[in-house]
Amino acid sequence: MKRYFLVSIILLSIFYTSCIPYKDTLYLQNKSTATDSLQVIVEQQKPYRVQINDILNVRIKVTDQDNVQIFNPIGIGNLNASGSERAYFDGFTVDLHGNIRIPELGEMNVLGYTTTEIEKLITDKLLEDQFKETANIFVTVKLTGLRYTTYGEIGKGMQTIYQERVNIFEAIANAGDITDTGDKTDVLIVRQYPQGQKIHHIDLTDLNVMNSPYYYVQPNDMIYVKPVKQKSWGTGTNALQNISSIATILSLVTTSILLFQRI
To answer: Which stretches make up the Polysaccharide export protein N-terminal domain (predicted)?
Structure first.
């Protein structure tokens, strides 16, 4: 009888420790204040500054649009391309020196500039070399989609979203969400900087993640979701899966005990 009691205690311990806690599966929990309180979240996002290998979409409009055809090369590289491929052929890639090369204007250094600052650079250059104020120059510069990479316990691969602003939850949803065995409490973001790469940690189960400077995804980010420790144990992720496993183990243990008692 004592043996059965001991086995039951061991199995119950395995049951409670092998399940993934419910609180670790929920996003945006209010961990610091009462659940019925009103909390104002102030989102933090600094203007993105262009990096090497970014692809910029530059469009120039003037009163006489025929005069700027050379600045707006649409579909010259591959007329059958679409999406990110089309952006690659039509856009201006920032080279290793931080320059883009625009027809007639030549090379312009844009490394570390925001798109608004680049618009002003191009406008000033056009007024200096090509047009007068009466041409009513209007320049738009945009990133050709926000590209990032996901791997680990999430849909894997290079993702592209055609928006100027994407938060971490939108990026994860676009990749197919985090699996049941993914650790939402410590998601790693590998971010590019002029001096190299840095790794940042964010907790997606905490509501305060919206205050994080890494809440918004930047181009070329890598998002890595680690597995929870329960995955390496090979146990189930929920109670039903563990009950099935424990029932199998209990049956095996009971059979073994009966066999030993007969010996």
So the answer is: 43-141
